[in-house]
Amino acid sequence: MEPLEIAEKIKNKFLQEILDISQFRDQVSVTIKRDKIIDICRYLYEDPDIRMDFLSDLCGVDYPERKPRFEIVYNLCSLKHGHRIRIKALIPEDNPSIDSVVSIWSSANWHEREACDMFGIVFNGHPDLRRILMPEEWSGFPLRKNYPLQGIEGWEYKGFKEVKEMHTHDDEWNIK
């Protein structure tokens, strides 16, 4: 099944939830309202003609000049049928949250943790939503466009000295 056909099936079933269907270089994206992410993803997983049984990626995107500011992007594919589609859920800045899809694809677990860690988007119902890349005491969300490039002024990571000590021999060992 072609990606546009899948997008039309989604549109026919969830007409009120679809905000946009776009195509670029043979890749189709369906932009949806965040409230029905579980229903739409479960449909894509369970429909035997579509059978999106593999979540290949889930990531956050920040558009600070746009309302809603954030997106969560789900790259789905069917190992059985060999087709792909991209689902984008729009997330507002004043309530950056969306339901977790871990109950559908267990591979979403660490992807959702990363999006939460880097963008501050909360995944409701996630089984273990704690930082995965940054230390627990880290302040802020480094992949937001307004995060300072040099980090937050005056704030120092408590483990910095230990990490710096671990890398004292990098030049000597030609590690760069």
Largest sheet: 5 strands, mixed
Radius of gyration: 19 Å
Instruction: Calculate the terminal CA-CA distance, rounded to whole Å.
Output: 46 Å
The ordered H/E elements are: HEEHEEEEHEH
Q: What's the shape?
A: elongated
CATH topology: Beta Polymerase, domain 2
Write out the strand line-up for the largest beta sheet, numbering strands in chain order: 1-2-5-4-3
Low-confidence stretches: none
Number of domains: 1
* DSSP strand content: 25-35%
Average pLDDT, to the nearest integer? 91
Question: What is the name of the CATH superfamily?
Answer: NADH:ubiquinone oxidoreductase Nqo5 subunit
CATH class wording = Alpha Beta
Describe the fold and architecture.
The chain is of the alpha/beta class. It has a single domain (3-145), classed as 2-Layer Sandwich (Beta Polymerase, domain 2). The protein is built from four helices and seven strands; from the N terminus they run αββαββββαβα. The strands form two sheets. It has a five-stranded mixed sheet with strand order 1-2-5-4-3, with helices on one face. Strands 6-7 form a two-stranded parallel sheet. The longest helix has 12 residues, at 108-119. The protein is elongated and about 55 Å long. The chain starts with a helix and ends in a 10-residue tail after the last helix.
